[in-house]
Amino acid sequence: MKPPASEIPELPKATSDSVFRVLREMPPLKRIRLVQLGIPAPWFGQLSKRMAMPKDRLYRTIGVSKATMTRKIDKGQRLTLGEGERVLGIAMLLGQVETMLTESGGPGGFDAAGWMARWLDRPLPALGGKRPGELVDTADGRALVSDLLARMQSGAYV
What we know:
Elements: H1 19-25, H2 28-37, H3 41-51, H4 55-62, H5 66-75, H6 81-104, H7 112-119, H8 139-154
């Protein structure tokens, strides 16, 4: 049974400038409800476009099936709990980068989403030579990557 429209939290458009920061600042219970009700699959396509990251690469990065996601996007379906958590997890990491830039007085016009897409593919000594993108398909991996981003901002990057 589909929940009433009043119960479905508004998912910001992935094309808006502050979408990732908005998601990160959203109350946790609201984000949980978004994932439980199913994030619309077309939002994944918007995320891929915003990051200038090919969908195939983003599929691999977050560990979702290309065939399943393509079908869901084409039919305008919603993501499963696991798929939604991983997609929202990447958006939250992007929100963290956007927040870091704002708090640090970063350069205006900096493409946080594009930077993140490239950074996910770089092997990092702080991760034992692993790429952040190898870890973000799990909650623990996303937490590790988030911690690394926070250490980079504070200057405690090791």
